[in-house]
Amino acid sequence: MTTSERADPSRSVVLETAVRLVFHTVLVFGVYLLFAGHNQPGGGFVGGLVAGCAFVLRYAVTGREGIGRAVPVDPVLPLGAGLLLAGVTGAAAWLLDGQFLESGKVELDLPVLGVVKATSALPFDTGVFLVVVGLVLLVLRTLGAEAEQ
Amino acid sequence: MTRVLVPLPVVLPLLAAALNVLLVRRQSLQRVVSVLALGGVLATAVLLLREADRSGATVVQLGGWAAPAGISLVADRLSTLLLAVSSGVLLAVLLYAVGQGITDGRRTTPAVFHPCYLVLSAGIAMAFLTGDLFNLFVAFEVMLVASYVLITLDGNGPQVRAGMTYVVTSLVASVLFVTAVGLVYAATGTVNLADAAVRLQDVPEGVRLALGLTLLVVFGIKAAVFPLFSWLPDSYPTAPSPVTAVFAGLLTKVGVYAILRTQTLLFPGSPVLSRVLLVLAVLTMVVGILGALVQDDLKRLLSFTIVSHIGYMLLGLGLASTAGLAGAVLYTVHHIVVQTTLFLVAGLVERRSGTGSLRRSGGMQQVAPVLAVLYLLPALSLAGIPPLSGFVAKLPLLQAGLADGGALALTAVAAAVLTSLLTLYAVGLLWSEVFWGPVADVVPDADRTDSVVVGTARTPRLMLVAAAAAVVAGLAIPVLAGPLYALSERAAEDLVARDAYVSAVLGDGR
Amino acid sequence: MTGNLTLALLIGVLYGVGTYLLLQRTLTRVVIGLGLMSHGANLLLLAAGGSAGAVPFAGSTDGGAGAGTADPLPQAMVLTAIVITFGVTAFLLALAFRSWLLTGEDAVQDDVEDRRIAALEPEEHPHAARPEDEA
């Protein structure tokens, strides 16, 4: 917190404390939704939106600067990386003699976790997740910056 | 091999767009990636066209889900022909924009230009290739979202005002599109075009007509058909020249393609729709060109000629004969190339004289004779002067109209001839105001913060080369008129005989 | 397929209210109107899929495919349409905000043609905005 923020009379202790409490929970829930997506309600888009909500909450408290500290990368990076990941996952099916976007699955027997099933929809969804989070951050940064002026 | 080739025109620009987003600080690398991607798309499109012309439509079911459950991509003669022409135009405009960007140094087009331009290309390719009504909606949205950003690239006053008109109009069209998809799904239980074509035969005549008209309104807004065109001359001229050029050449033509595809595949032989199309064709042609005659701004005048010439393609479609459809296809090809070229040259003229106003410019042929030649060739071609491409493209249309012989068809032919003459008058007006007369003073650049530099004698060689390449491509159309018309005719035969398309998508069992 | 009267009425109301708001001169109302209209369109798409039913997973019903299950396709399409509307509405809001920053008012501006007509005969269009007025 900088001094200028501390002097701001519009700050609300209740909101700040509540956001500090739920911020990480909301983020983790977003990631949970991403992984739950294939067989249960969830998926990359919803997960991304929930994770994005965490950042929106944080923005409501700390403004643009706080978001910059929470995510010290240019928001276009997750956006581009996500789009690339999703596209490459779709195209990867070509290498395995499939059609574009055709999905495949692997089952792994890991030592602690037991049998884990992963589908190629997961990296695709991760890409979508990153795009949505990047988009939310970008909107917060650009629109938020203009609104704060 | 086609397994990879057919989705490639969509996938390649999207991947390149993602790379470009990551390379946002490395503008020179961005340029290389974009040019390579669009070059790849052009090569793919040419290969696909050759394949489609030799052995009929190739179909790819995305994700391996068979139609009608999955999304099909269909590369038949019509879609690959338009795809090949569009990718060539996209590449030329990209080079033009790159040339502008390199020369103008720091005041280059903003970093979002390249990703958005590539997403736009992907959307256009998807719209041409898709065999699914809902996927067509998605393709339109992909294309439009990119175009929203491109049309408001500088974010200055006029662009925001025009962008607002453009976005709201497009959004209304999109809402109507979702409505139409819902209605088609309710009536047939499918959104796969081939499957819907089969099932619509059992749908009552009235319902079919309502669906046809709803889709016509949706695509009519995108294609700027009378009376749904007023957004176009208002919004296009404010965007940067390369953006206006690619919008003028391609976006409306994607709408025309959608009308062509849906009307021939889903609602063939409906006399009501044919009559509606012919009436719309006449009104679009005449109203559009009358609008062009009273304009003072270079790009606004040209924007009205886009509207007017959309009417020719509707005329071919409204005749509902193979010859008419072939004419419409050929006209679309000609118009994509020529209209884009005119806007590229208009951009160069504006860059030189510093203004788009006809009254304030003059004597350009003494100052820049090369620009005068580059303008004159596509302008005369647009008006349909033989032996240029406009003449080659209009002739089959007029012949098809005369062969039809109905009162409405003959009226449309008369309107087409009148529009040609008025087009000649409009482009002649532009010529005499801008290129002839005493040399006017160069108007200095009013807004030094936007990405467009005007009023400078520095014309980047790459911009000139790109514009010249587009002019040459336009000149190649009459040279290749025979094979091109034969190809258009084969594409039109495919459209009339729907069975080949349907069985290619659904498998031979149906 | 049986129709659902509640849904049909709701769709009609959403379209009607959306159209009314779309015709207003205030940009915010236009944006809200477009949002309502697209909700109407999405509901229509959903209604086109027929009535609700069991979860349409393979093997989750006894009577083979289709019997008693919901139609998943419209739901997938509606989700896609919602995502697109979400993105475009965000852009539209940003544009409206930008317009407010530039002009200081939340209103649809006159287009070029309007201004030309207004400038031609100023005395006959006393309410029309003229280019000079905006500076």
From TrEMBL, chain A:
Compartment list: Cell membrane
Membrane-crossing segments per the record: 12-35, 41-61, 73-96, 116-140
Predominant localisation class: membrane
Topological category with respect to the lipid bilayer: Multi-pass membrane protein
GO cellular component, one term: plasma membrane
UniProt xrefs under PANTHER family: NA(+)/H(+) ANTIPORTER SUBUNIT B, NA(+)_H(+) ANTIPORTER SUBUNIT B
Name the UniProt record assigns to this protein: Na(+) H(+) antiporter subunit A / Na(+) H(+) antiporter subunit B
Species in which this protein is naturally found: uncultured Frankineae bacterium
